[in-house]
């Protein structure tokens, strides 16, 4: 007897494999995170993120033009705020002439059709490195959400297409939506980090922005009172559905590779686009192993990003976006 069905026939060569392949990534799948700093002529490599850089505004301009020519049409902006501008309430986040507001305008001037999304959270602006205002040793929820609403409005006024609240305060999507609607910013979208886990994979990002929680007495040492516990699954669906009810246009799962089950659950459950974030620690792990010659960098990059799409991601935020597009096109 022989096997009645020989599945290997569909794997015999690259031509047959490529015609039956179910999931293919393209430049349209990617959202490019960009780190911005004050100054001129700065292109600073982030030590724990090899070949990833912080740009001053003049060089940011060249970078976004290059992204555009590669077919990458969406960016997600993060700013590194100088220490002297940090406080407990994120006052600088509302400065109409702040670094984020200028960065938005810089990208729009360089590339008017580029989709500009902005990080909305207090941690880069907080002396304590937290996503919320601290009162009596606690991260307060509702007052923080108010500031996030004002921050979102400020980004919309500067020209952002989407705001991306990454903080995990309860109710902030509604607060942000109302703040935008009240001032007539009906078309400014919200991409909510709706299921963001308290993860050790964010380490290199906090180096990039100098935004890690500080080690001071009576200040929480981690973000576990607002970001999700990594043992939880159903909670991710609840969080995501609530954010959609409050007005989120796009929802997100973060981090990526350790949370593919969550990504698939959410994709099956909701009817809005779902994003995933392949975070800094995932990037650093792959870079480090590749540097040692232990893993094939390009193949791992292709495999992980394809896995996100297969698991249900409509949008992939990844520090590999540029490299992957150069690899596949
Ligand atoms: N809001 C952004 C993060 O919390 C971290 C992202 C990363 O680790 O790449
Ligand atoms: Mg929530």
From TrEMBL:
An annotated GO cellular component: cytosol
Family annotation (SMART domains): ALAD (SM01004)
Key word Magnesium present: yes
Entry annotation: catalytic residues: 196, 254
Reactions the enzyme catalyzes: 2 5-aminolevulinate = porphobilinogen + 2 H2O + H(+)
Keywords: Heme biosynthesis, Lyase, Magnesium, Metal-binding, Porphyrin biosynthesis
InterPro entries xrefs: ALAD (IPR001731), ALAD_AS (IPR030656), Aldolase_TIM (IPR013785)
GO molecular function: porphobilinogen synthase activity; zinc ion binding
GO biological process, one term: heme biosynthetic process
Record EC number: 4.2.1.24
Pathway it works in: Porphyrin-containing compound metabolism; protoporphyrin-IX biosynthesis; coproporphyrinogen-III from 5-aminolevulinate: step 1/4
Subunit structure: Homooctamer.
Protein family according to the UniProt entry: Belongs to the ALAD family.
Protein name per the record: Delta-aminolevulinic acid dehydratase
Organism (species): Hyunsoonleella aquatilis
């Amino acid at each position: 007897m022989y096997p009645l069905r020989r599945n290997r026939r569909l794997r015999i060569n690259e031509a047959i494999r490529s015609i039956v392949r179910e999931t293919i990534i393209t430049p349209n799948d990617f959202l490019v995170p960009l780190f911005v700093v004050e100054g001129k002529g700065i292109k600073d490599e982030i030590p724990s993120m090899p070949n990833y850089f912080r740009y001053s505004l003049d060089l940011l301009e060249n970078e976004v033009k290059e992204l555009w020519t590669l077919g990458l049409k969406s960016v997600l902006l993060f700013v590194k705020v100088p220490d002297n501008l940090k406080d407990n309430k994120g006052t600088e986040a509302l400065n109409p002439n702040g670094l984020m507001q200028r960065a938005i305008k810089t990208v729009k001037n360089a590339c008017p059709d580029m989709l500009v999304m902005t990080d909305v959270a207090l941690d880069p602006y907080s002396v304590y490195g937290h996503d919320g205002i601290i009162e009596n040793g606690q991260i307060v929820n509702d007052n923080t959400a108010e500031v996030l609403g004002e921050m979102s409005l400020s980004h919309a006024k500067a020209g952002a297409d989407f705001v991306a609240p990454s903080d995990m305060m309860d109710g902030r999507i509604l607060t942000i939506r109302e703040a935008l609607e009240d001032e007539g910013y009906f078309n400014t979208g919200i991409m909510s980090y709706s299921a963001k886990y308290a993860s050790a994979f964010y380490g290199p990002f906090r180096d990039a922005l100098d935004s890690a929680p500080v080690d001071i007495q009576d200040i929480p040492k981690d973000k576990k009172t607002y970001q999700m516990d990594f043992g939880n699954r159903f909670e991710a669906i609840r969080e995501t559905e609530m954010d959609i009810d409050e007005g989120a246009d796009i929802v997100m799962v973060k981090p990526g590779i350790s949370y593919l089950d969550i990504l698939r659950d959410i994709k099956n459950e909701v009817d809005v686009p779902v994003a995933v974030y392949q975070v800094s620690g995932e990037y650093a792990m792959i870079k480090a192993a590749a540097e040692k010659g232990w893993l094939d960098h390009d193949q791992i990059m292709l495999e992980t990003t394809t896995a996100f799409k297969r698991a249900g991601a409509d949008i992939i935020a990844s520090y590999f976006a540029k490299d992957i597009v150069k690899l596949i096109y």
